[in-house]
User: Which sequence fits this backbone?
């Protein structure tokens, strides 16, 4: 139902309360992603997220709508941060409300796997030895491809 | 014809620009429709750093906020962005 791109922290409790509202439906699933303190065994101090605001808004809204139609969601929400984030801060939060647990959980997984490769954000890690752009991972592309195959099947 | 060019992440850093207007006047008289590949070729003439950065095999092109292939046609006022593979989430 909505997307938020924000520099500030994600208030997970408030997001959950707003997603559920006064009618929780039968199944609510959420996922929260946090900044790791290491990357490929290299310690990370801060993470900087660059983004393309207009495109990110559009892509995330389309992913949410697609999740809603695939899984019959009554409500969904995607929150993604940008800017400089410290270790253990939340980066991303997705939530889905459906009639059945499988649909709610799959919708969150679909939104996460898709936004990793399709939403215009770029991570740069600052740690020992300076800053380094995070390379895209083949495993992320494979996870994204699974959903396309499912769609075609 | 003018379009807006945007660059992000490693491309923005390598080329030292984040956005600018680009005139396609030199391409338009050819009467061939102008596609993303033609814009890329025009920008590549700006120097070896531009040529190398834009022609990396994994560069993503987004036209008006949608990922496209290089045969997508551009029109007056369009926004064309170049960037590396996305790493959100």
Assistant:
């Amino acid at each position: 139902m909505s997307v938020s791109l924000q520099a500030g922290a994600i208030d997970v409790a408030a997001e959950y309360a707003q997603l559920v509202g006064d009618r929780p439906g039968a199944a609510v699933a959420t996922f929260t992603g946090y900044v790791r303190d290491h990357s490929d065994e290299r310690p990370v101090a801060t993470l900087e997220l660059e983004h393309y605001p207009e495109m990110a808004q559009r892509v995330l809204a389309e992913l949410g709508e697609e999740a809603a139609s695939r899984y019959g969601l009554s409500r969904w929400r995607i929150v993604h941060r940008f800017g400089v984030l410290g270790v253990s801060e939340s980066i991303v939060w997705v939530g889905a409300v459906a009639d059945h647990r499988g649909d709610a959980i799959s919708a969150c997984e679909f939104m996460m796997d898709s936004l990793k490769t399709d939403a215009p954000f770029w991570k740069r890690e600052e740690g020992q030895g300076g800053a380094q752009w995070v390379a895209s991972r083949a495993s992320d592309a494979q996870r994204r491809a699974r959903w396309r195959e499912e769609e075609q099947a | 014809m003018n379009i807006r060019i945007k660059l992000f992440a490693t491309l923005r850093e390598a080329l030292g620009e984040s956005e600018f207007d680009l005139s396609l006047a030199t391409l338009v008289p050819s009467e061939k429709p102008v596609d993303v590949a033609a814009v890329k070729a025009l920008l590549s003439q700006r120097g070896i750093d531009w040529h190398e950065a834009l022609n990396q095999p994994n560069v993503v092109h987004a036209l008006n906020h949608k990922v496209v292939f290089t045969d997508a046609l551009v029109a007056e006022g369009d926004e064309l962005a170049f960037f590396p593979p996305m790493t959100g989430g």
